Amino acid sequence: MNEAKTPDTDLSEARTQLQRRKRYKRLFYGILTVGIVGYFALVTVWNRVGGDAIAVSAVGVYWGAIVLGLGVLHFGPDGIEDEREEEINAEAAGRTLGVAGFLLILGAPGLATLGQTGVYTAPPWLNGMIWGYASLFGIFAVAHWYTKRQY
Amino acid sequence: MQNSLPDLRDRHDLSQGDLAAAVGVSRQTINAIERERYDPSLELAFKLAQFFDCYVEDIFDPDLTDT
Fold it and tell me: Where in the numbering of this chain does the HTH cro/C1-type domain appear (chain B) (predicted)?
């Protein structure tokens, strides 16, 4: 085993690149946070005060943040997260899907049966949630098919 | 996966941050590999081997006896 290959100058450049990626990552999540918090803040104001301008501003702040965030991803360094962070994201997404699947498998037949027998009528939000989870699995099936074709 | 990254870093007087920068990952990723909480991709394993000018198996010991 010999000396590590990268000289100090390269290491310094590598550090700078890593710092740059960190900055862009902070910037990306910062912009998204501002967009989401700004949206809810303005919607809260709109609920109390009213006024179309405030409602439109809320959507504008949110969409603006999305566009800026995409700009950061596009013009920033290649990938703002490394492989471990991407694996964490994938694992968390898998767990989220697992929870949604568990709730869907348990909840959908139960709610349908209770609704049909008139024992319990689910409120619209609960039906919406179940349909949302079902749609999520529809999207998952398409994404799975697409991804599988790439391997 | 068992690995000799901490020894190699010490030998070359490198911090986790230095090594992370050299191979293009975060310091936390190097830390997770050293603590055997994360197995690197083949690409990263080869980058590490290239950086230390050694073979991948000089750094990582998969301990295949369990499998």
Answer: 8-59
